[in-house]
Amino acid sequence: MIKTVKIALAGEGGQGVQSVAGIMVEAAYEEGKEALYIPNFGVEQRGGVSVAYCQISDEKIGSPKFVYADLVVALSDRAVLRTKQYVNKDTVFIYDTFIEGIEDDLPTNAKRVLGIPALEIAKKELHPRVFNVIIMGVAIAATDFIEMSAIKTALEKKLGYKFEQDPSLRDLNFKALARGVELVKDLL
Fold first, then answer.
1. With contact defined as beta carbons under 8 Å apart, do 139 and 20 qualify?
2. What are the pLDDT digits (tens) for 36-78?
3. Residue 92: which domain range?
C-alpha cells in the first residue's frame, strides 16, 4: 500500500519549524522516499507566523499543495488560527500547552487534538534551544513514517559542525528527539 503523509508545522518566526521541516524531508529523502518541503513566512521579518508544508511519500508527489494535512503542529496562538484550515476528520492536531487561552480556538473537527508541554520540557529538563528538536520527535512519532536512524543522520548532517565544536550538543539534541517521541507515544 502506497502511503503519503502531509504535514503542516507552524509557529512564530524563530521557533525553528523551517529547520525541523528541512531535516525531516532530508531524512525521508535519504531513506529513498519522495519528499517535498515548502516554506511559508509571514510578512514580518521576525516574529510572524511561519508555516512549513511537508509531504513524504512512497511514490511521486503529484502536487506541492494539499487541502488537508495528516498532521498539524501549531506552536503559538496565531499558528493555531492559521493552520485550522488544514484540519479535517483524519488530521491529528498537536499544539504546545504553553499557549494560554487557546482552548476555544482549537479545531473541533480533528481526528485527535493533543496538547504537549514541549516548551516546558525544553526549559525544565533539557535546554530551550532544543525546543524545535522535541517538536521534530513529536512529528516523527505522530506520523511513524521516517526511521529514527534517518532522522539522527539528517540531524547530524545539519548540525554536525556544532556537534564537533561541543560534543555535548549531540547528546542534548538526541535526548530532545527521544523526549518528543516519548511525549506522543504516551498520548497515542
1. yes
2. 999 988 665 566 789 999 999 999 998 888 999 999 999 999 9
3. 4-187
